[in-house]
Amino acid sequence: MRFYRPGDETRIDLQDVRTIDRSIWAMRLVARFFRYRVHGLENVPTDGPALLALNHGPVPIDAGLLGMTIYERLGRLPRALTDHLVFKAPVMRELFMAIGAVDGRHETADELLGRGNLVIVMPGGAPEGFKSSAHAYELYWRKRTGFARLAIRMQVPVIPAACIGIDDVYTLHWDLFEAGKRIFGVRSLPFGVPWGKGPGIPRRVPLTHWVGAPIHPDVPAEAADDEDAVTAFRDRVTAAMEQLLADGLDLRASGLDGRTQA
User: Fold this and answer.
1) Per-residue pLDDT for 261 more than 70?
2) Is the pLDDT at 262 greater than 50, yes or no?
3) Residue of 103, 118, 138, 204 with fewest CB within 10 Å of its CB?
4) pLDDT the model gives residue 142
């Protein structure tokens, strides 16, 4: 793998297929550990640009599992937009670079989509991932418009993909980002340790992805500068994602989450 150099976070040519192929066995072990399943994979296009919007858990391993499944079954290697803080963490940043993640800047996202990539985005960001478990499966998308503006500007569909189980891998007894803000005055710093079978040790919770139908912008690219149009499109996608989450949780509660299906 390439060692990080300043500026690498915006380069789109650093995805390393050889590293991905050599390490995919490890992701298969993770998938087996979490008894991972995907339903609705037919909603992911086999070519052309699209945004794949996911809910954000404390440790978003589900994004990697979905990316692996898409790669193995559809032959596409998704890219991912991630928080700039990732590129301040040695080792993690090298891993993210190798699998094709880039800093979530608009110009970089435009370039990825302009080249026909399938791009993973988690609109709720780290604040959604580190929310208190009292708010499990609640989306933090209602004040986020970046992904909707991007989809409209680039005229690409957004495909919602809800992971059931990811918010149960750990228990967070308080909002870690709010705690960081109150204690250190910095909202981007989580304060606390996720608790699973122990501090930082994940529970073996079944993870199931439910992939919804693509949602296409119904306004022209110029509407990316229209706040009302952007908000309306964001709300359409958010409502679809919330419905996927609600349906998935209901199915899990009834014991009919499709785990006997392929």
Assistant:
1) no
2) no
3) 204
4) 83
3-state secondary structure of 203: coil
Q: Strand 101-103 relative to strand 208-211: parallel, antiparallel, unpaired?
A: unpaired
**pLDDT digits 0-9 by tens, 41-59:** 999 999 999 999 999 998 8
Q: What are phi and psi of 43, to 5 degrees?
A: -80, -10
Q: Are 72 and 51 in contact (CB under 8 A)?
A: no
Q: Is the pLDDT reported for residue 189 higher than 70?
A: no
The answer to whether residues 211 and 41 touch, using CB atoms and an 8 Å cutoff, is yes
118 forms beta bridges with 50
How many Å apart are CA 87 and CA 101, to the nearest integer? 10
- 77 has pLDDT over 80: yes
Reference 85, options 196, 186, 219; nearest CA is: 186
* Residue 104 phi, psi dihedral angles, 5° rounding: -80, 55
* Calpha distance 189→178 (Å, rounded): 9
Domain that holds residue 144: 8-172+206-253
Write down the H helix ranges in the chain.
17-33, 61-74, 92-99, 106-114, 125-129, 146-154, 176-184, 227-254
The candidate with the shortest Cα–Cα distance to 11, out of 77, 76, 100, 90, is 100
Does residue 128 form part of some domain? yes
pLDDT tens-digit series, residues 80-117: 999 888 898 899 999 999 999 999 999 999 999 999 99
Helix (H, G, I), strand (E, B) or coil at 45: coil
| Of 46, 43, 115, nearest in space to 76 by CA | 46
Residue 33 near residue 204, CB atoms below 8 Å? yes
Residue 77 is part of a domain; what is its CATH number?
3.40.1130.10
Measured between alpha carbons, how far is 58 from 199 in angstroms, rounded to an integer?
A: 13
